Amino acid sequence: MTYEVLQIVVSVAAALITAFLLPWLKAKIGEESWARLVEVVRVAVRAAEKAYEDEENNLVRQTAKYEYVLSFLAEKGIDLSESELDALVNSAVQELDQ
Fold this sequence. Notes:
The structure is a single chain. This protein has helices spanning 2-29, 31-51, 58-75, 82-97. The protein has one domain (2-97). It is built from four helices and no strands. The longest helix has 28 residues, at 2-29. The chain is mainly alpha-helical.
């Protein structure tokens, strides 16, 4: 029961961050840079999903995938705040889940 409540809280928080932070970030960096950034994040998320698809433990898998994405983005020189990165990654994950 507690895990389900936590999932709901995290989902709502992610939705709020995505709804307000992403439009602000898009306006800040411009359309062309935004499109490139979103595509790099999508590639990182897809690669992480593939790299850790066989991991049995869900918590370990989620943490490993997130760390993989952050490392990938850092290697590409993407320097954003943690909340900005979280919003982008969550948005890409939601897209992938659909």
